[in-house]
Amino acid sequence: MGDWSAMPEDLETPRRPVPGELTFDSPRRGKPRRHLADLTMAQRREAITAIGLPAFRADQVSRHYFSRLGDDPAGWTDVPAGQREQVSDVLTPPLMTALRELTADGGTTRKTLWRLFDGALVESVLMRYPDRVTMCVSSQAGCGMNCPFCATGQAGLTRNLSTAEIVEQVVSGARSLARGDVPGGPGRVSNVVFMGMGEPMANYRSMVAALHRLTERSPAGLGMSARGITVSTVGLVPRMRQLASEGLPVTLALSLHAPDDELRDTLVPVNTRWNVSEVLDAAWEYAATTHRRVSIEYALIKDINDQGWRADLLAKRLRRKLVHVNLIPLNPTPGSMWTASRPADEREFVRRLQAGGIAVTVRDTRGREIDGACGQLAAVGSLSRPLDAE
Ligand code: SF4
Fold it and tell me: What is the distance in angstroms between the CA of the first residue and the CA of the last residue of the chain?
């Protein structure tokens, strides 16, 4: 782990948005250095031949990065010792520094706080279950979607992440698992959820390139199954349609949080651009094109969106669709008026959805102790709240 005392002093904090304000474009900032995870195989070979080395070095280094998960050029024994630093400088420049790691659930949930080259902070969370390992990754530093119950949204958008900055979060988790750093023995990342900081569809190009890197076979990528990957969105309809046309059968998770426009306009401000009917239509198109069941995310918030009539309305809107509802007990953020529903209200909400014929689960609240659950990845805030720190 990096030096915990080295808090970023040069961090530019974005302006806090006013209620309802949406930020779609990433503020202009410098770009991180190009990394092999930003590039296709052909582009990596070009980058290597441009420095006068044989193209196959790109394949070797890609294999070290994605298959052997080796991040130390000294261990690349198939590359001549005199070329390792040069090749590493072109294809695997350092992208992020782990500032600290917090653990919970006996070490099987681990949140890492990363500092990027420009001082921006993002977090990723590894969650190990008996049958799978899920990495929750950030796609932006901060978020421009301004959902009022979400700590990340309240802090505004710092910038989009590059493809490699997204992929490196997963590869880093894969490295920890392969090295046996996570209780349960060596393992592999089986699932990736884009549910950390940011709205993935607002960083569309980098997000889709990251999907390619995660699913391409070695040496091009990590070789994961697209079926193990979930992209969440608050409902950027044109991008949802575009994703359906990419031929990548990832799961789409739509953060709905309210079945009626009146409430959703407040809870999810992007609803003022694309309303409930429009986002649901785009979700059904996604399901029809990819044959993947859409996941509807619904954070249950006490006395705000957890009334029985809203459960009935939600069931009505989802009836006979390829859909599954994931209810999320809201993770209270410090000083926030938003809090989780009463258990009895939660049970009644579930009952009404099921009575309406809707498949529903209540999300495991893993990571709650370390603020790693959805809507709680606000790096700056969590710096002052070390719990169970290693
Ligand atoms: S809930 Fe998601 S989309 Fe909304 S502000 Fe938070 S991170 Fe952004």
Answer: 9
> Ligand 1, closest atom to CA 196?
7
Question: Is residue 103 situated within a structural domain?
Answer: no
Residue 299 CA to ligand 1 centre (angstroms): 12
Q: Which are the catalytic amino acids? A: 123, 374
pTM, rounded to two decimals: 0.91
Q: For ligand 1, atom 4, name the residue with the nearest CA.
A: 147
Euclidean distance between CA atoms 386 and 390, whole angstroms: 9
Instruction: Name all residues whose Cβ lies below 6 A of ligand 1.
Output: 143, 145-147, 150, 152-153, 197-199, 234, 375
Q: What is the pLDDT of residue 369?
A: 52
Is 102 inside a domain boundary?
no
Residue 319 confidence (pLDDT) above 80: yes
Nearest-atom index, ligand 1, CA of 153: 5
Closest CA to 126 of 175, 191, 173: 173
Q: Please state whether 79 falls in left (phi above 0), alpha (psi between -120 and 50) or beta.
A: beta
- Residue-level length of the chain: 390
Question: Per residue in 139-166, pLDDT tens?
Answer: 999 999 999 888 888 889 999 999 999 9
CA of 199 to the centre of ligand 1 (A): 6
Atom of ligand 1 nearest to the CA of 198: 7
Domain total for the chain? 2
Residues 226 and 163 in one domain: yes
Tell me, yes or no, whether 98 lies in a domain: no
Its domain, for residue 64, covers 35-93
Are 366 and 260 within one domain?
yes
Residues 238 and 89 in one domain: no
Å from CA of 105 to ligand 1 middle:
25
β-strand pairing of 109-116 with 121-128: antiparallel
Mean of all residue pLDDT scores within the chain: 89
Q: Which has more pLDDT, 174 or 21?
A: 174
53 and 141 both lie in a single domain? no
User: Ligand 1 centroid to 47 CA: how many Å?
Assistant: 36
